[in-house]
Write a structure and sequence with these properties.
Blueprint: H1 3-20, E1 45-52, E2 67-68, E3 74-81, E4 84-95, E5 100-110, E6 114-120, E7 129-137, E8 140-149
Parallel strand pairs: 2-8
Antiparallel strand pairs: 1-3, 3-6, 4-5, 4-7, 7-8
């Protein structure tokens, strides 16, 4: 065979081989995306404890205070976060010598932020002095606030 004929045969063979390979025009299949992870509910916690002599419809204290008149009704507004399945919130009000003035509880069942309200009043007025409200969740102390009656 002559050189030109060999080159022609070789060139044709290469061209045919190249024609046999098809370029893919479809993009590769995307990997299946996993569903976004389901986040676990936030654990229950007690946030702020505010005292005042008035609350709004949302159970929040309208104006925070640390000093009250003897005839005031004293409100404690407690915010909570996270998921609660029947957490017992207790407010224990006490006088300066540790004497319990009042105690009440409320069960919280929520899937997010909530507000719990407690209050104490004495028709003939509170004696002047230092007081304290201790808040517990399921029997475990989660915060205290001190206040004064003048």
């Amino acid at each position: 065979m002559s050189r030109s004929l060999t080159a022609l045969v070789l060139g044709t063979a290469l061209a045919l081989a190249a024609c046999g390979q098809q370029e893919s025009t479809t993009p590769p299949a995307a990997a299946p995306q996993a569903a976004p992870p389901v986040s676990a509910p936030a654990p229950f916690s007690v946030g702020a404890i505010q005292l005042g002599n008035q609350i709004g419809a949302d159970k929040r204290v309208l104006a925070a205070a640390e000093s009250f008149a003897p005839g005031d009704t004293i409100y404690a507004s407690i915010t909570t976060e996270g998921q609660a399945q029947g957490v017992l919130i207790t407010a224990r009000w006490s006088y300066e010598d540790g004497q319990t003035v009042a105690e009440s509880s409320e069960t919280v069942a929520s899937a997010g932020p909530a507000v719990v309200e407690f209050h104490v009043a004495k028709p003939d007025g509170f004696p002047a002095g230092r007081y304290r409200v201790e808040v517990a969740a399921d029997g475990r102390s989660v915060g205290t606030r001190e206040f004064e009656v003048r």
